[in-house]
Every structure is written in C-alpha cells, then in structure tokens.
Amino acid sequence: MSHFPPAPVAGAAPLDGAGSAALTYSGTAVDIGHALDDGPYALLQRIAAVLAALSIVVDGFDSQLIGFAIPVLIKEWGITRNAFAPVVAAGLIGMGIGSAFAGLFADRFGRRWAVIGSVLVFGAATCAIGLAPNVATIAALRFVAGLGIGGALPTSTTITAEFTPARHRTFAVTATIVCVPLGGMVAGLFAGQVLPAYGWRGLFFAGGVLPLLLAVVLLATLPESPRFLARRPQRWPELVRLLARMGRAVPPDAAFTDVREQRAEQHIGFTALFRDGRARDTAAIWAAFFMCLLAVYSAFSWLPTMLTNEGLSVSLAGYGLSAYNLGGVIGALVCALAISRYGSRWPLLLCCAGGAVSAWIMLGVGATQHTALLIVGLGLHGLFVNAVQSTMYALCAFVYPTGVRATGTASALAFGRIGAILSAFAGALVITAAGASGYLLMLGAAMALVLLALAVVRRHIPGRTKASRR
C-alpha cells in the first residue's frame, strides 16, 4: 500500500525556456516525482549530492586505513598476517550489519539522520583505535566503525538518487560511490606521509577526526530527502519549505503524491524486493555484490600486505593500493557516462570481463623486477573492478522504487559484505599458501562470476535512445 493519500494529481505547468524553476499547480495536489525528476537541478539539490559524496569520501578513507596499518603493525608487534584476519573480518561484519539496518532505519526514520549517525559512529570508533593496546581491541573497534561505514554507503547513495533529476541520476549516484576509491586514494597518499612520522596511531587519530568534523557540517546543512518527506503527511509543511529553497514554490496547504513510484510500487517492505517480477533481479544483484565486494575488499585489506610479501617497501605497497583506487575513480566515471548513453548491460559486462582479464595478465609480472608495470596493472584492474562496483548502486536505484530503494540497496550491500567478510580470511590464506599468483587468480575468478550474475539481471538501466522511445 502507498503512503500517499488518494488525491488526484494536479497538472503542472512546464518549465519556461529560460530554465525557470517556477511551477504552477491547479488545486493543491503536487506530484513530487514530476517536480524532482523533470525539473531543473537546483543549487540545494547539488549541495545535498556533494554532502552525500563527502560522507563517502571519509567513509572510503576510514574503511581502508586498516589495510595500510597492517604491515606496520605486523612489524611493530611481531605477529603474523593471519592474526589480523579476525580484525579485518570484524570490520567487515560490522559493515554488513550496518548496511542492512541503515537501509531499514533510513526508510523508516529518514535518510538525513541515517547518514549523520553513520558518520559519527565510524569517526568516533576510528579515533579510538589510535588508543588500542592489542589486536582484540582493534578488532572490537573495527566492528563498531564498520557499523557506521556500512551504514553510510546505502543511505548516502539514496540521498543522491532522490535529490537528483532522472536525467542526471546514473552519473550522480556513480560519482557519489566513486568517492569510496577516491577516499582510499587519499588515504594511501596520507598514510605514506603520516605513518613514517606519526605511526599507525596517528593515522587512526587523523582518520577519525575528519568524519567527526564532517558530521557537524552535515547537522547544519544536510536536508532531508523530499521524496521521503512526501510520504509522511505530518512533515508536508517541512517539505513545502524545502521545495521553496529549491526554487519550487507550492501552496502551503499542498498535498503530495508520486505517480511514477506508485505505479512501480505495489508492495513495500523487505518482501517487495522479491515481488512484481523483481525476484530474479534481486538474487542476481546480490550474487554480483557478493563476488564484487570479495574482489574489492581483497584489494582494500590485503593488497599492501601482498606487495610487501613480494618484497616491496611499505611505501611502494601503499602506492600500489593508491593506483588501484585512482584507476577505480576513472573507471567508475567513464562507466557511468557509458551507462547514461548505452544503458547498463553492456558497459557492466565489458568491465567485468576487463577486471578478470587484467588480474590474470598480471600473473606474469614480477613485483620487484617490474614494479612500475605491476602498479600500472593494478591501476587498470582497479579501473574495471570499481567501475562495476560503483555503478551497481545506480542499477539498484533503477530496479527498486522509492519505498524500498534504501532497503533494496542496503540489502544488496549487506549480502555483498558476506563476500567482503570471506575476503578477510581468503586474502590471508591465499597470500600465505600461493603468494601473488594465487591472489591474482582469486581476483580474476571473482570478476568472472560477477559477469555471469549481471548477465542474468533483467531490469538493466536503458540507454538514452531506448529510454527516449518509451
């Protein structure tokens, strides 16, 4: 059942040729979907998307700090890499739980508080890791930080999707998600400077302060999603004021509906992910997230360790992960542009194939003999893998309507976190047993399975030409 009252939708005058945001309505019923999807991209909407993106930058920064710290901790504390598998797993378990519950929280209580709460949690926990006396304490604090890191991703992408007009949505959502590898790239450069001077404790202190400062900014400036507000009549006065700030004046007594979402949304709640023909797509998206996050977090958590195991210095190992993240930023943006023009099916499948092939090609590259070539190869691999991972969030935003969009995205990410948790143990075991060759074989195999899963998805984002014919 829909949350909207059964009021008829009033006609909305089209925007004028100058791009004015002024809208006129006959009566008091306002179609929020028309106002947002087909209207201009106002400054406040862009600010909301930027704030969501900044949340993901610090999310990506904090999520990858442990990967840079592990080689230093192994040397300082004199313990094995396998001892850190539970630390990595604890953080990823927290991310999985955070992803699942943040989506439900956001759909019930609002996107704004879900994002702010997530940022506060992982900022405070990351700061506390700087005081940890042993591995068990780091594991516990990484679990708490993971709750916030996992919660920030689906709720921030939902805010971006619901503030952005339909014609810009795929690129905007991808640009938000691409901030994960962007944050990781910044973390790599940051770690290269901080670790030699201040050690791993200073790295975690700095990594925790940044999100805490951002949380203060979000409290002061981040608005609630207008589509979320439209579903709660008691908050319609707040929505009227928000639309006025976006240059869309509506009557103070306006009632709101969302015709497009109502047509797609015959059911709400978790079971809606498997109704109305979505069961196949949901299962395939979950499988794709599972294998893709296994590949991504095998790199985030263990790539520096693998490279140091092959004889590279800690600094060069950090640059390897930075190259992986830099490639991811470029790949995700290029893939988003391709999806906007050609639809999501073929760009995603081609990037999956590129991710598998690029990993397997590196099997013949020696780390110490051809270091520069290996780092370039890691950048190329990161380009393909993160292109897939980042744009799959836009696919979720297309497949699921407003009432279950945060839940659908969060559930896919939560299922993907199981693959990420598996990577915590698989990475350590594979590097110990088979070195770089086994590690790269695992990355390529994971991306080949992502290709198969995404080929099964029925509701891919249509290309520009196909969408215009509808």
From TrEMBL:
It is found in: Membrane. The chain crosses the membrane at residues 83-106, 113-132, 138-159, 171-191, 203-222, 283-304, 316-339, 346-367, 373-400, 412-433, 439-457. Residues 48-462 form the Major facilitator superfamily (MFS) profile domain. InterPro entries: MFS, MFS_dom, MFS_trans_sf, Sugar_transporter_CS. GO terms for cellular component: plasma membrane. Pfam families: MFS_1. One of its GO terms (molecular function) is carboxylic acid transmembrane transporter activity. The keyword Membrane applies. The keyword ATP-binding does not apply. Its main location: membrane. Keywords: Membrane, Transmembrane, Transmembrane helix. It is a multi-pass membrane protein. PANTHER family: CARBOXYLIC ACID TRANSPORTER PROTEIN HOMOLOG. This is MFS transporter, AAHS family, 4-hydroxybenzoate transporter.
